[in-house]
Amino acid sequence: MHRKKGYQESFSKRLKTDLRRNWSLYLLVLPVLLFYIAFKYKPMYGALIAFMDYTPTKGMANSEWVGLKHFSRFFSSPYFWRLLKNTFLLSFYNLLFGFPAPIILALLLNEVKNAKFKKFTQTVTYLPHFLSLVVICGMVTDFSLINGLFNSVIEFFGGTRTPLLQNPDYYRTIYVLSGIWKEVGWGSIIYLAALSGIDTQLYEAAKIDGAGKWKQMIHVTLPGITPQIVILLIMKIGNLMSMGYEKTILLYNPSIYETADIISSYVYRSGLMNQEWGYSTAIGLFNSLVNCTLVVAANYISRKTTENSLW
Amino acid sequence: MKKRMTKLLSLFTATMMVTSALTGCGSKEEETQTAQTSANESSASVESTSEAASEGVEEFSYPMESGHTVVYWMELNSAASANFLSMDETEFGKALQEQTGIEIEYQHPASGQAKEQFNLMLADGNLPDIIEWKWLTDYTGGPAKAIEDGVVIPLNDIIEEYCPNLKAYLEEHPDIDKEIKTDDGQYYMFPTINGTRESFGGYIREDWLKELNLEIPASMDDWYHVLTVFKNEKGTEAPLSIAWSALITNSPWAYAYGVGGKSFVVEEDTVVYAPISDGYKEFLTTLNKWYEEGLLDPELATIKNTQVTAKIATGLSGASAGYLASAMQVQITAGIAEAPEFSLVATPVPEVTEGVAPEYANTTRGIGAIGAAITTQCEDIEAAARLLDYCYAGDGLMLFNYGIEGVSYEMVDGNPVYTDEIFNNPDGLEQSAALGKYQRASYNGPGIQLADRYKQTLLYENTQNARETWQVEGAVDHVLPALTLTTEESSEYATIMNEITTYVDEWTLKFVMGTESLDNWDTYVQTIQQFGITRATEIQQAAYDRYLVR
């Protein structure tokens, strides 16, 4: 984009003019802005306790500064590499298998001509999204028991019954699959919306050129929703390392810490359970830095290769 | 220019979005400061009121004049939460407020989240007047630190001034008195005093033993034999079913090897970290053998108490360990519903070497884990103290143990006896829930749990006799008493133990389940030593030595 040469008003001046002209729009955006300030920016001040031996009753003013003590403790912790690896691998598998799943579902649904069947399938796949995570994990835990559903399926196909959530090798599969089960329907909505926006003339043209269903999908449908896919992918990558602790602490037990324990569950145990506020904040802060780096990198790569990007 | 601005902004926003999630603990310094000031003010006012009190009216009697309100934070026990959302709605809660004349505003954490919510409450800095909590075990750094952190206040003057009931009890029972003080002699909580010790132990299907001509197992070899027979003859999928944490910490099999508690134990005045002791290795070796041979529940890492109850009741398992009233008795009731001949009998702590009597058992030093403390933000200290002192004698003690006369109990020959309201509730409440409605001595809280009350709630002959079976002479000497650490000690201790706990939990299960061979025991011990267990043990030993000279 080329800027016009010549006289350019200062930013504050332009803002003033714009404020006067569009005050109602600014008023509309105000609550959102306040929300971010109150709940996203102000708490960041609390990140300072990563550099303190923090005691709540003493407050931040009176707690002792300890510099990078908490960080060096975490980096030299025997769990550091394991936590990093588990967090990364779980997110990576989540992305690898979890990201394409709603796209595939949307593409499949798009081809369904029977409206009733389509609606039914959509409802069934959305449903788990509305269940609380606690309920979902409770179900998964029960299904994984020796007499549980998963084991019945395994036995049906000739396997033997074992307690699945006690085997570190199965944990990632259970984690990723249950995640897909819960979110696939919900995630497909945005793609279905994007699909409905594709010009039907393109399909007609493709048909005239002799493209079958498969070719139509490759050359018309997918390019049509690429911008949405890329944007969502970048956002997912930004969250790659920020896995919530909720699902993990609901599913894991010490016998599978080896693959299940991730940074946020470790933060949960040391912060909320053992009152090591400073230490756990330091770990959280480190995690955020990693995330931030990832999202910037992903955006950069995407801008260079697909010309789609967040900014 | 414009584009660059937007770029920067969006980059900034993206950064914030990822950062914000993990930095939730905001600053509360202003509030904390005001809190401290008000605490100072209120402690000043205590002095002035106490002067006034000693000069003025001597005799105090319940109820207090109206107008006293205290905010009371406590975890609602399942006995009460089964039918009530708040203590306020229970008959006990109503009667307590009526009889003391003090209005109580109860706050309860969501079930199962007490620890998180307690810690969030501390981080937030807005404290209620009274907090019921496991101050010894679940406040990092222990009670001395809780006082130093400015969370709770020392109670010495307050007990002296406002708490004749507790004071009298402590004067009569110096052993209890010693347990609820810090090293420098500060009281910090209104304790749960239990007349009921040894209420956790092992039990086994009595009817199966008879049917198969077996004796009640008395040694580890007996257990191996009995469980094997159960497996072969009864086709049980898990002859011994128990959740792993109970198995490791509290079960008679752990006590047999002198390692109950998964933590520090006392051996002839020396503090020992049990999970690296030779006894623990032997214990894990045995468990591993049992696990490999299918004698131990294959799901021990994930199983929950309700599932254990179901397995025992339906005959999928034949033995377990648990609390007398809430596990053994519940399982008998559930089992009889399935099969009328069902019966469970308590098993003693087994001998490892035949002829050598076990020395360890589940027991306490007479104090329950939970006690009520008054916070620094409490303004009406007299009301809080009077309220908490109520259940240590007289009418309060009766209410605490038996509930309401004429409703939940009646006096028979001068002794309180529960009525059918408890045993055979007209609304169909189970016994534990009916108890939860009227009294609170069936679970921990500030007051005295009478032994007689407990006996009345035991319905079967086998449960009534269980405590004698479980008892081991002198076991209490091995229980680490209520130690208090200094602030420096406690933060060092917490840092060390934080890493070790995760490690021990994980490796214990690996050893039992055979995913890690016991040949690697030395590596395990070495790692724990590298974490600094020697230092942690020193800290505990120092605190224990201080305790001995109290």
Q: Strand portion of chain B, in percent?
A: 5-15%
* Helical/strand content category of chain A: mainly alpha
Task: Show unreliable segments of chain B.
Answer: 8-57
CATH class of the largest domain in chain B: Alpha Beta
CATH fold call of the largest domain in chain B: D-Maltodextrin-Binding Protein, domain 2
User: What is the total tally of β strands of chain A?
Assistant: 2
CATH uppermost class of chain A: Mainly Alpha
Gap from first CA to last CA of chain A: 14 Å
**Could you say what the CATH architecture of chain A is?**
Orthogonal Bundle
Question: Secondary-structure blueprint of this entry?
Answer:
The complex is a heterodimer of chains A (311) and B (550).
Chain A: H1 11-21, H2 23-41, E1 52-53, H3 59-62, E2 64-65, H4 69-75, H5 80-98, H6 100-111, H7 115-130, H8 133-144, H9 149-156, H10 168-196, H11 200-208, H12 213-238, H13 245-251, H14 257-260, H15 263-273, H16 277-305
Antiparallel strand pairs in A: 1-2
Chain B: H1 2-20, H2 29-55, E1 68-73, H3 78-81, H4 91-100, E2 102-107, H5 114-124, E3 130-133, H6 135-138, H7 142-148, H8 156-162, H9 164-172, H10 174-179, E4 190-194, E5 200-205, H11 206-211, H12 220-234, H13 244-249, H14 252-256, E6 264-267, E7 270-273, H15 278-292, H16 305-313, E8 319-323, H17 324-338, E9 344-347, E10 367-374, H18 381-389, H19 394-402, E11 409-412, E12 415-418, H20 420-423, H21 431-438, E13 447-449, H22 451-457, H23 461-470, H24 487-513, H25 521-531, H26 533-548
Parallel strand pairs in B: 1-2, 1-3, 4-13
Antiparallel strand pairs in B: 3-10, 4-10, 5-8, 5-9, 6-7, 11-12
Helix pairs in contact in B: 15-24, 16-17, 24-26
Could you describe the 3D structure shown?
The complex is a heterodimer of chains A (311) and B (550). Chain A has a single domain, classed as MetI-like (MetI-like fold, Orthogonal Bundle), CATH 1.10.3720.10. The model of chain A has no long low-confidence stretch (mean pLDDT 86). Chain A has helices at residues 11-21, 23-41, 59-62, 69-75, 80-98, 100-111, 115-130, 133-144, 149-156, 168-196, 200-208, 213-238, 245-251, 257-260, 263-273, 277-305, and strands spanning 52-53, 64-65. In chain A, 72% of the residues lie in helices and 1% in strands. By secondary structure, chain A is an all-alpha fold. In chain B, helix 16 runs parallel beside helix 17. The longest helix of chain B has 27 residues, at 29-55. Chain B has helices at 2-20, 29-55, 78-81, 91-100, 114-124, 135-138, 142-148, 156-162, 164-172, 174-179, 206-211, 220-234, 244-249, 252-256, 278-292, 305-313, 324-338, 381-389, 394-402, 420-423, 431-438, 451-457, 461-470, 487-513, 521-531, 533-548, and strands at 68-73, 102-107, 130-133, 190-194, 200-205, 264-267, 270-273, 319-323, 344-347, 367-374, 409-412, 415-418, 447-449. In chain B, the strands form 4 sheets. In chain B, strands 2-1-3-10-4-13 form a 6-stranded mixed beta sheet. In chain B, a hairpin with a 2-residue loop joins strand 6 (264-267) and strand 7. Chain B has 2 domains: 61-196 and 365-449, Periplasmic binding protein-like II (D-Maltodextrin-Binding Protein, domain 2); 200-362 and 477-548, D-Maltodextrin-Binding Protein, domain 2 (3-Layer(aba) Sandwich), CATH 3.40.190. The chains are: A mainly alpha (311), B alpha/beta (550). At the A-B interface, helix 2, helix 3, helix 15 and helix 16 of A face helix 1, helix 2, helix 5 and helix 24 of B.
